[in-house]
Amino acid sequence: MKVDDFVAQTKTLAGHNLEPTPWHIFPRKAFSEGTKHSQAYRILQCSYFSCPYTSVVEPKSLLSDSGSSRRTQQPQCPDVFRFVGANQLHRWIHRDLEPWAETGVTKEHVEKAKANAAFRVVILSGKLYVDLYYACVQSRMMFTIWGILQLLNKYPGMVPDVDMMFDCMDKPIINRTEHQSFPAPLFRYCTNEAHLDIPFPDWSFWGWSETNLRPWEEEFGDIKQGSRRSSWDNKQPRAYWKGNPDVVSPIRMELMKCNHSRLWGAQIMRQNWEEEAKGGFEQSKLSNQCNHRYKIYAEGYAWSVSLKYILSCGSMTLIISPEYEDFFSRGLLPKENYWPVSPTDLCPSIKHAVDWGNANPSDAERIGKRGQGYMESISMNRVYDYMFHLITEYSKLQKFKPEKPSSAKEVCEGSLLCFAEQKERELLERSRVVPSLDRPCKLPVADRDRLERLIQQKKKTIQDVRYMEMTRTERGSR
Question: Record's superkingdom (predicted)?
Answer without folding.
Answer: Eukaryota
